[in-house]
Every structure is written in structure tokens, then in C-alpha cells.
Amino acid sequence: MTFSNDRSRIEESDHQVQQPRKALIVVDVQNDFCPGGALAVGKGDEVVAPLNKMITYAEEHDWVVVVSRDWHPSNSKHFQKWPPHCIQNTPGARFHHQLDYHGAEVISKAMGDNEDGYSAFDGFTRDGQGMSLEEFLSENDVSEVYVGGLATDYCVKATAIDSVYRGFRTHLLIDACRAVDAKDGDGERAINEMKSEGIDLMTTEEVLRG
Ligand code: VGL
Ligand code: ZN
Question: What CATH number has the domain spanning 23-208?
Fold first, then answer.
């Protein structure tokens, strides 16, 4: 290879404009939100299979993959509203053992004593000591986000709405989320609310088909 070819290659990379990227955000697929857990979501574990397919697809297409986790201190005031769940470093706070999260960036949220922290946008990288999710997505040139996980009527909804408010084009993976449904219809109402906020509803199959 000649010197001038080398030089032009360097200039190309110097001036390279980053293409906008997509991100998959997998919300709170943790043992306590799955059957047998402290705050079990009905059929919560059914999100694992479609989300694993999405993770594989995302990795093959150079997307950013994020998994959020509810990461509460044991004395959280959040436990005045909810049974204690997802306490830092306990088995209930671990990701579901079948979730393929190992290549993903982990976002820890709800670490304050007085914090509900439903949205993944309330969380941070590096065990909660690093950058916010929004900074992380910006650093990775993300403009479009796909959200799934647990639970539709709390953390998924809060995350998707924060995402669209922050200007990301936002899609909800309707087959890859499940609701707490404390009141009958909460999940359905959450989906309608997300839709009216401008969030696009899609199935995993639609994404995989391209
Ligand atoms: C969640 C209730 C309490 C969730 C977290 O992940 O949706 N729900 N804490
Ligand atoms: Zn919680």
C-alpha cells in the first residue's frame, strides 16, 4: 500500500461521521419480577425468549444493548408501597438466569433511600456510579430506542415515556413486556398511554423481519 493511500484512509477516519444507532433497552428482567419472586409479574419470565432473540439481532446489527436493573437499598421508602424486592446483591435482584445479558451495558437504578426510580433514565452505568443512561446513549450516537421487559405498567412505561420526551424515536416491543396489573386493565391502559405519547408499538417478529 502506498503512503498516499494510507494518508487518505487516515483522513477518512478522522472525518468519519457517526451514523445514528439504535439501542435495545431491556427493563428489569430480574428474579423478583418473575414467577416465584417477591413482586412476581404474571408470566414475567415469558419475556426472556423474545428479548434474547432481540439481543442476538441487536448484536448482529451493531445496536447498543442496555439492561436495566431495579437496585434498591434494603431500607428504601419504596417498600412502603411495594413488598421488598430487588435489594442490592440479593438473589432476587439478579437477572433471570436465561437472559443473555452478558454483552450488555448494565444500568442500575432506584438506589436512593427515597427513590422509586421506575425509569431506566433514572439509572447509571458502573453499578450506579457512572454516567446516566441518557449520557451513555448520547455517547454512543443513539437516536432510536426499542423497549421491552418488566413491568409494562411501571418501569417499562416510565422508561419508554422518558425516552420519547428526551427526543429518541421510541418503540415498545408489545410481546416482550408483561404487566403487574395490580388493578385489572393497568397493562392495557399503560400501552394506550404510551401510544398516545407517540411511542410506536411493534412486535419482536416485526423487528426481526427487518
Ligand atoms: C417495578 C414496581 C416496583 C418495575 C419496580 O420494574 O416495573 N415495579 N418497582
Ligand atoms: Zn422497585
Answer: 3.40.50.850
